[in-house]
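Chapter review: from sequence to fold.
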Amino acid sequence: MARIIAHLDMDAFFAAIEERDRPELAGRPVVVGADPRGGRGRGVVSTANYTARAYGIHSAQPIATAWRLSEEAAKAGKKKAVFLPVSMEKYSLVSAEVMKIVRNKVQIVEQTSVDEAYLDLSFTGSFENSERVMREIKAEIKKKERLTASVGIGPNKLIAKIASDLDKPDGLRVVRPKEAQGVLDPLAARVLPGVGPKSSARLSELGAQTIGDLRDVGLRRLTDLFGKAGLNMYEMSRGRDDSPVTEEREPKSVGEQETFDEDTLDSGFLTERMEKTAERVYERLKQQGFTRFKTVVVTVRFANFVTHTRSRSLKVPDSTVDALKFTALALFLPFLDKRENPHKNLIRLVGVRVENLS
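The token string follows.
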């Protein structure tokens, strides 16, 4: 039986929930993320609605840049963006309801994030039947949750993922096997998973700006430049992806991070924030139904944006917040002295993550 895979992506999920729950936001640009602090904020944008995206605001953008773009739009006579904090607990509850709708109609579902999932629709027997199922799911999400989703359907996860981005928001694009290469070729090479800014720049030097251009670059040339990633690019540019949809629903890790208003090397402040971050991770761990963790990862970003991660795996999994805080601090404290910070660089961000969950 031929594989038929769908990728469901909730549209501007965090911002859409806020708009749904707060009627006064109708028609306003909405940005969910860090506190912009009047343009002096240090975090990033988590989600921006489509009105805000028209201003050039997008996810992962520095919140200060989003603030500046909002101010520029206001000077041009447009509405200022509304900046809201992330309410992850609320978004997770909505996500659970959305996934319940999905799983009522599809048996094999791979949830990859709070707002995305792959669905194996091979059981429907045809792309026509698959489209009908996904339209029913979209309609039910809109009716019950008052939110929209964009869907891509294709012969594999790669094509489905790319297709779900083609008609946003509230879109549904079906790409059959014989249509896949024609859809891929005109798209920018950077839409392929794993092709980031650096890889994209190197491909541009080869004249490979689109996926079609990338197909003309030989396998040996790609592997010489990118190693194993080059082989992946070669396969993806031809629309190939054999990865299955798996029913693994548990997250591989749970983490939190905090960006400070001012760069600092104040040991008392930093150790207190590390402990608080670890406590937040522990609370999220419990909320998601886990009782134990085996690996603790600490992230430290300096004022110059150089970022380091350090990890430690426990001999046996632990279930206490004290163990999490102790391990996180043990990994972090060397960044306060010459062991990990010989030049006494100020610290901009700290993060804690737990992995190998049970």
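Two observations follow directly from the output. The two ends are 35 Å apart (CA to CA). The longest helix spans residues 267-287.
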